[in-house]
TrEMBL record:
This is Cyclic lactone autoinducer peptide. It comes from the Bacteria. NCBIfam families: quorum_AgrD.
């Protein structure tokens, strides 16, 4: 059971990092609210 929990936590952490990277590199084009990014997310920005 512990192995399943650790695998699930690893998948969730990787998914969160992927969503953060995608959010850093995208901007809101409409008048919708874009939430603030976590501290340190600027390091993931691609120029």
């Amino acid at each position: 059971m512990k192995k399943l929990i650790f695998k699930t936590c690893g998948v969730v952490a990787n998914l969160a990092l992927l969503v953060t990277v995608l959010n850093v590199n995208a901007s809101c084009m409409l008048f919708a609210h874009q939430p603030e990014l976590p501290k340190g997310a600027e390091k993931l920005r691609k120029f």
